[in-house]
Write a structure and sequence with these properties.
It comes from Roseovarius halotolerans. The protein is of the alpha+beta class. It is 62% helix and 13% strand. The longest helix has 13 residues.
Length: 110
């Protein structure tokens, strides 16, 4: 990920509803959620939610997949990984052991 893409992602996350959507989709995991389910869970209007989902997709933070007649949304883990890698590219002055406590905090337990 380059600086331009990182800034787009941060811009997308600078709005409270979009940040809430991303966190909700991260929690939903592989099952994802339909737009209506996301709107209901966050108490948002569906037309507003559609716009927010579009911004997050443009930023590469979420993805969608058609399942039958509906579209489900998922956190784009590759996009998130790219953003985190961009932020931590030069972490700890080249001493990976110093970064380990941070990495342990942000990774899923086995």
């Amino acid at each position: 990920m380059d600086k331009t893409h990182a800034l787009t992602a941060f811009g997308a996350l600078s709005q409270p509803t979009r940040l809430d959507v991303l966190r909700l989709l991260i929690r939903a995991g592989d099952t994802g959620m339909a737009a209506g389910e996301i709107a209901t869970a966050l108490g948002a209007r569906q037309n507003t939610m559609s716009a927010n989902l579009g911004v997050l997709m443009q930023a590469g933070l979420i993805r969608n997949a058609r399942q039958g007649r509906s579209i489900r949304y998922f956190a784009d883990l590759e996009g998130l990984r790219g953003l985190l890698a961009f932020l931590m590219e030069d972490c700890c002055g080249g001493n990976p052991a110093a970064c380990q406590p941070l990495l342990d905090t942000i990774t899923c337990p086995s």
